[in-house]
Write the structure tokens for this entry.
Amino acid sequence: MPGYHTKNHLKLTPREQQILQALIDYPHISHQEVANKLNITYLTLKTHLHNAYSALSVNDCRGAIIKASQLKLITLPDN
């Protein structure tokens, strides 16, 4: 089930959260390399990202990371 909405609260599937977190944890590698680290195909990674963008009502990865962080669905580093 892709990312979904509950009453006044946005949610991501565990896999969508894992992928967004991996993009934060490995900021200097490509999406293909992130997919390899998670043992999924690049197409699967793109599908999960698309579903996360939809669930969060954003258009890109940066927006998804910001919104998921604001909702405390993922953790940003303490720079």
